[in-house]
Every structure is written in C-alpha cells, then in structure tokens.
What does this fold into?
Amino acid sequence: MNAQFKRGIIELCVLSVLVEKDSYGYEIISKLSEHLDVGENTIYPILRRLTSEDYFTTYLEESTEGAPRKYYQMTKKGFIYYLSLREEWDAFIGGVYHVINQGGKKNEDILKRFKERINQE
It folds into this structure.
C-alpha cells in the first residue's frame, strides 16, 4: 500500500479496533495486518501517544502463554476523538470517491473514455 495513503489513516484504524473491544498490542497489529501492511514500529508509537493523550488507559492481564499482557482500553475522551476522526474520514473519503469515480468505477470504462478523448485530439 502507498505509504502516503497509509500514514494518515493508521491512527483511525487503531481507534476502530479499540472501539470494539480492549486489545493488547500484538492483537491490534494482527487484526490490522489482515488488511494493511503494518508492524510494531508503526503501531506501538501510536498506542503510546494516544495513551499519553488520555484516549486510552492500560491494564495488565495474566496470559496463559507467558508474561502478562498490556491491554489498551478506550476512554470516553478517546471515543469522542474517534467519532470526530471518523466523521472527518467519512466526509473526506466521500469526496474522494466522488472525484475518482466520476466516469465510472471499472477500468474498462475509464480506458474506453480515455481512448475516445485521445482519438479526438
């Protein structure tokens, strides 16, 4: 995925995972990795920052597979922040889809129109 696309949206993706349920870092990375190319070096700094800004709290929970896990839990402030970002994203992506899909969504349709335009020149 294009790094410029990814850079601005990962924070919203992390918030989207945590709005559903409390999760630990590796679990968040695994969930996001199903759809995006992300790793620890991207996610943990976001988790630390959002925790320091009081959007998350943390707690430890024992694990049957080793050391206790640090869980992240969204706060009310985090939920309000998530809703704000989500609203901005929805407005932004709606505008983007409108612009890039003006002439249709299928590559064949776009290619046909492009060829017609080239032939007119």
